[in-house]
Design brief:
Elements (H helix, E strand, L loop, with lengths): L18 H24 L4 H4 L4 H14 L6 H18 L6 H13 L1 H10 L2 H27 L18 E3 L2 E2 L8 H21 L2 H20 L3 H18 L5 H18 L4 H20 L3 H14 L20 H8 L10 H9 L1 H27 L4 H15 L5 H16 L5 E2 L2 E2 L22
Antiparallel strand pairs: 1-2, 3-4
Length: about 450
């Protein structure tokens, strides 16, 4: 709630000199979807080169932004530049003196970081709404592909991996963890959780045909979650539902949210008669029980232990890792392929462990704190938007915060998901202006904040 009668300043996102940057950002958005399909099915022999397909757009955007934007905030650019110098020097003197591995490591850890803040600065609330419509529309074909992959053999063409001799991850009961059009399952999981936010928001505020469209997309998403065979997808969806419940708990929209929440088990039960949800839930249950039996734990303990180990296991490496690490980029799949010829995790699969082993304990800890600082900066913007009764950033932050902190940036599709999710979170937090004219998005969510109508926002 505004505490002052002063008008909220308009952001200059719609000035003509940002149009090209905006188009390039949309190119980045669409390449996130297309990259995996091209690498897996169209040009697998060039998969290694196409791994970098979004990088020229990023460099072009940075070049334009240098002349046309005021960097807000400035500190991510400065810190990224410092890390470029420090990690580059470490890579030059690392045990594995492969310049390509070092360059790819710098690209993985640092190149795309400022893109988060450029997306947040250039795109507007309206652009995020457009991305929501695109995501909901893509739900139908992407989930259909995932269902086909779920029922196809591991070595089939539709389950090809990003490369000539690579494949997908096995799930349970002979089913794969489907990636849909993405190169690996992690991109599909990020898409499911992002689209779930948009579907729930539309279910809360839309009417008529748009409500029917959102309900259809939501039902298809339930199928997508069922066949994902992914614990990360289910846990992410549960977090998103919890965030929606908390944000609507004190408002008149809470009854509608409870109706949606009660409909989820009924929808799953109804869809289970189709067979695909039934099979997907059984495969997921088998994978979950298999992992808990291996650790001799309950489901609850398995969740808690997994989160705990993700954030704490790297401390055991601090005293056993060389001061400069084993080489930046060596822990990524591409770095492993350039070094040994195999696509594998040479150092560690856990993101924090990979960072410590690559660049050493001192620089590694500083870089991990940098990731936390990015998440904290986004969170601060989200809180301010929440006080202005804008719930969308808060809900998107429930998805983007996880990928910013512990997402495996060495996997290109997860790195792209992180940049887009975090950038859209920041963009959705802007005051609602369109070319300086007061802009109130259609169906503005009234299921959050005061029971009174929002104050009118006027341009200066």
């Amino acid at each position: 709630m505004r505490t002052s009668g002063a008008p909220i300043p308009a952001f200059p996102q719609r000035e003509p000199d940002t149009r090209l940057i905006r188009r390039l950002i949309w190119g980045y958005f669409w390449l996130w979807f297309a990259e995996g399909a091209i690498r897996k099915w169209l040009l697998p022999q060039y998969s290694g080169y196409l791994l970098l397909v979004r990088d020229p757009l990023v460099v072009w955007i940075y070049f334009l932004a240098f002349f046309r934007l005021r960097f807000r905030p400035l500190w991510p650019w400065l810190v990224t530049g410092v890390f470029f110098v420090v990690m580059g020097l470490e890579g030059a003197f690392s045990p594995v003196r492969n310049p390509l591995v070092a360059l790819y490591g710098l690209r993985t850890n640092l190149l795309h970081v400022p893109m988060i803040f450029i997306i947040g600065q250039v795109l507007t609330y309206e652009d995020v709404s457009k991305a929501a419509r695109y995501a909901l529309g893509l739900t139908f074909p992407l989930v259909a592909i995932a269902v086909a992959q779920f029922y196809s053999p591991l070595g089939s063409f539709i389950n090809a991996g990003a490369g000539m001799d690579s494949g997908q991850l096995e799930g349970a009961l002979g089913h794969v963890r489907p990636p849909s059009v993405f190169s690996f399952n992690g991109g599909y999981v990020a898409f499911l959780n992002l689209t779930l936010v948009f579907a729930l928001e539309d279910l809360m505020v839309q009417q008529g045909r748009r409500l029917l469209f959102a309900a259809s997309a939501f039902a298809v998403l339930m199928v997508g979650f069922a066949v994902s065979v992914s614990r990360a997808a289910v846990l992410g969806g549960a977090i998103t539902l919890a965030v929606f419940m908390l944000t609507s708990a004190r408002n008149r929209g809470f009854g509608r949210f409870l109706a949606i929440l009660y409909c989820i088990p009924a929808a799953l039960a109804s869809l289970s008669f189709l067979g695909v949800v039934h099979d997907g839930m059984f495969a997921f249950a088998e994978r979950w029980t298999g992992s808990t039996s291996d650790l001799h734990t309950t489901v609850y303990e398995s969740i808690v232990l997994r989160i705990w180990h993700t954030f704490t296991d790297f401390f055991q490496l601090l005293g056993r890792t060389p001061p400069a690490g084993y080489g930046v980029g060596l822990g990524t799949n591409a770095g492993a392929y350039l070094t040994t010829g195999d696509l594998d995790f040479l150092l560690a699969e856990n993101e924090f462990e990979r960072i410590i082993l690559e660049v050493g304990p001192i620089v590694g800890l500083a870089y991990i704190l940098f990731r936390f600082a990015i998440a904290g900066a986004i969170g601060a913007v989200v809180v301010r938007a929440f006080r202005r009764r804008n719930p969308r950033p808060w809900c998107l932050f429930s998805v983007s915060a996880v990928t910013v902190l512990i997402g495996q940036w060495g996997v290109a599709t997860i790195q792209g998901a992180t940049v887009l999710l975090a950038g859209l979170t920041l963009a959705s937090a802007h005051p609602n202006f369109y070319r300086g004219i007061p802009f109130s998005p259609p169906g503005r969510p009234r299921w959050i904040g005061s029971r009174n109508e929002p104050e009118e926002v006027v341009a200066p």
